Amino acid sequence: MKAHDALYIDGAWRPADGADVIEVVDPADEQVIGRVPAGNALDVDTAVRAARAALPGWAATPPAERAARLAALRDALTAGADEIAATVTAELGSPPQFSRAVHVGMPIAVADSYAGLAATHAFEERVGNSTVLHEPVGVVGAITPWNYPLHQIVAKVAPALAAGCTVVLKPAEDTPLTAQLFAGAVHQAGVPAGVFNLVTGLGPVAGQALAEHPGVDLLSFTGSTAVGRRIGAVAGAAVKKVALELGGKSANVILPGADLARAVNVGVANVMANSGQTCSAWTRMLVHRDRYEEAVELAAAAAVKYAERIGPVVSAAQRDRVRGYIEKGVTEGARLVAGGPEAPREQGYFVSPTVFADVTPEMTVAQEEIFGPVLSILRYDDEDDALRIANGTVYGLAGAVWAADEAEAVAFARRMDTGQVDINGGRFNPLAPFGGYKQSGVGRELGAHGLAEYLQTKSLQF
Ligand code: NAP
Ligand code: MG
């Protein structure tokens, strides 16, 4: 894998201030595949200054020109798709086909959507005797996780650039090589120097320095609730705008009249994809008591099929965390019907696709985000019971409802405290707002709602 021994700041690859490096590990074979600089507070300061200096010019660039740069970025990502996919596979561990179709395909679609939105968005509107200007918020500090390394970056950087903001990105330490390829694509796209800057580094060092930097106007963070809380506190103290995309514990609600086999199979696939490292994954399956055993058998059979094709989880720490949760499920009395805590292979950070039956709503495996290939199946008595269980966590990021007809599923979805619901297997929509109710976050990403996060309004009265 290609690794730059530099940071991308002010339009060029520059050496970091210190000598610290991050070793990037392939989770499938535990080998070091590259080293990147671990930037420090001085590097972050240099990057923020570059972003601040570039802000007036970029903010004044006509939206049509910003759209042209985003279209060029989309094209550069498309041209580099094979290399990016191979890099995601190497540093995250996801199977090659999934890397190409989802890890690269989805961000290309998102970049394309913002090329379109930059060109067509109404950055000015008339309200009575006022003209309302939608202006860029300023310098964005973006902090991203490793689970969808390119998507998480594009979901922040593309709308920020469309809005006329400039950006300093601190990507996850586990997946910095994909971030470096993204910086290369930004460069190829002809985005002016300083508009986008990359500082690889550790969360508590580079991430914290970025969050606390007075030259940052907006913090956009995706990751754990624990770190999100801190970022929110820092932003609050400095009266900065903040967007937080945190964890989830989404419910897959299978109503009595649903096509059970389809709902279960799609539900298991949703959880096992990306080795369960998807914040919106439907990790709780809710089934009516009359069809419960049938669903458990179908889910166990479906999970077993993933044993051969599932990738590892991202790191040894993540593997240990997930295994700890599986052990906890057993201890708390859930019934293991597929997988388990034992390592399925000698080498690599693999976890067996795991399914728990007889899970009750208060169990740890029904409440906490596991972020691994672990599905919990819960039993409900009637629709009100299902709704209580579905809404009975601190999270509210996503979910699914399956029913005999769409209207019945929609009626249930309206009562769910969650930001996104797939109806009878509805497809992912890159223009639909994505984000959390409750402790799943603050703000929305994707589409016009995602763009609005990076804009602030000024009203002129006539
Ligand atoms: P994390 O620690 O919250 O990391 C997210 C990002 O924040 C990374 O870039 C991280 O840097 C950075 N960071 C860490 N500590 C920081 C600090 N004090 N100040 C500023 N930035 C900081 O999440 P993680 O370690 O990647 O994963 C832990 C758990 O978070 C997962 O098991 C999962 O439950 C959840 N998670 C959720 C999502 C989601 O999309 N909602 C995505 C990933 C993870 P480092 O990479 O150097 O730590
Ligand atoms: Mg971390």
CATH architecture of the largest domain: 3-Layer(aba) Sandwich
Task: State the helical fraction.
Answer: 40-55%
Structural class: alpha/beta
Principal-axes geometry comes out as globular
Bound molecules: NADP nicotinamide-adenine-dinucleotide phosphate, magnesium ion
Q: Based on DSSP secondary structure assignment, what is the total number of beta strands?
A: 20
Strand order of the largest sheet: 14-15-16-13-12-17-18
Termini Cα gap: 58 Å
Please summarize the sheet with the most strands: 7 strands, mixed
**Helix run count:** 15
Uncertain segments of ≥5 residues (pLDDT<50)? none
Question: Which CATH class of the largest domain applies here?
Answer: Alpha Beta
* Radius of gyration from the alpha-carbon trace, in angstroms: 22 Å
How does this structure look, described?
The protein is of the alpha/beta class. The chain has two domains: 7-246 and 439-461, Aldehyde Dehydrogenase, Chain A, domain 1; 251-430, Aldehyde Dehydrogenase, Chain A, domain 2 (3-Layer(aba) Sandwich), CATH 3.40.309.10. It has helices spanning 41-59, 63-79, 81-92, 96-120, 149-163, 176-188, 203-212, 225-238, 260-272, 292-306, 316-331, 364-367, 383-390, 406-413, 447-452; strands spanning 7-9, 12-14, 21-26, 31-37, 124-127, 130-136, 139-143, 166-170, 196-198, 218-222, 241-245, 251-254, 284-288, 335-338, 354-359, 374-380, 399-402, 422-423, 441-442, 455-461. The protein has a seven-stranded mixed sheet, with helices on both faces. The protein has a six-stranded mixed sheet with strand order 9-8-7-10-11-19, sandwiched between helices. A three-stranded antiparallel sheet has the order 5-6-20, with no helix packed on it. Strand 1 and strand 2 (12-14) form a beta hairpin. Helix 2 runs antiparallel to helix 4 and helix 4 runs parallel beside helix 5. The radius of gyration is 22 Å and the shape is globular. It starts with 6 loop residues before the first strand and ends with a strand. The model has no long low-confidence stretch (mean pLDDT 98). The protein binds NADP nicotinamide-adenine-dinucleotide phosphate (NAP) and magnesium ion. NADP nicotinamide-adenine-dinucleotide phosphate (NAP) binds at residues 143-147, 170, 172-174, 202-204, 207-208, 211, 222-224, 227, 230, 245-247, 279, 369, 371.
